[in-house]
Amino acid sequence: MKSSFASTIFAAAALLASALLAAHAAGAAQGLTPLNREPAPALVLKDSEGAAHDLAQYRGKVVLINFWATWCEPCRHEMPSMQRLRDRLAGRSFAVLAVNVAEPDARVRRFLEETRLDLPVLLDANKTTTRAWSVRVMPTSFIVGPDGRMRYRVVGDIDWSADAVVGTISQLLSGD
What is the pLDDT at residue 10? Predict the structure, then answer.
C-alpha cells in the first residue's frame, strides 16, 4: 500500500514538473506583449566606448532595446540569452542595444570585462532616455520594428534565445 501511494505521489510530482516546464517554455513567447505600433521615442546615447548611437540610424532593422543595471540579477541573468539571440540572427537586419541605467561608466566596463558579452552597451547616466521610454522596472525591453515603430515590450527577464521568441522576431525580419 505504501509503495502504491509513493508511486502515485511521484507520478503526480512528475506531471506537475512537466506542466510547469511546459508553461515556462510557453511563457517565453507570451512574455512579448504586443504594442500599438506607435513611433519609438528618441534614443540618442553614447556607448561604453564613447561612440554615439541614434535609434534613427537603425531604421530598416529590427532592434531589441534592453534597459538594465549591473545590480539587477534578472538583468544579468538574461543578458547571455540576448547575446545568443544576436549571434543566431547574425547577418540579418537585427540589432541589440543594451541601455545601462544610471551607473558609473567604470562599473559598467568592469561588468562587460567580467562577462565578456559582445553587445553595444549605451549609457543613460541621468535617466533621461529611461524616463522617455517610461521604464519603471528592470529589466524592461522593447522590440522596435524596421519601420521605427514599437512592436513588443517585455517587463522582467526572458530567454531571448527561446525558439518562440526567435520566431516572433524572425517574422518581423520577414516583413510582418
Answer: 45
CA dist., res. 32 & res. 155, Å (int): 9
pLDDT at 18 over 80: no
List the grid coordinates of 34. 504586443
Return the pLDDT at 2: 54
Alpha helices, DSSP H, located in 31-44: none
Closest Cα partner for 35 from 161, 124, 133, 127?
A: 133
- Residue 119: which of 140, 95, 150, 139 has the closest Cα? 95
Residue 34: cis peptide before it, omega within 30 degrees of 0: no
Overall number of domains in the chain: 1
Q: Characterize 142-153 residue by residue with b for buried, 16 or more Cβ atoms within 10 angstroms of its Cβ, and e for exposed.
A: bbbbbebebbbb
What count of Cα atoms within 13 Å lies in the side-chain half-sphere of residue 168?
A: 22
Residue 135 lies in a domain: yes
Q: Which domain holds residue 120?
A: 31-173
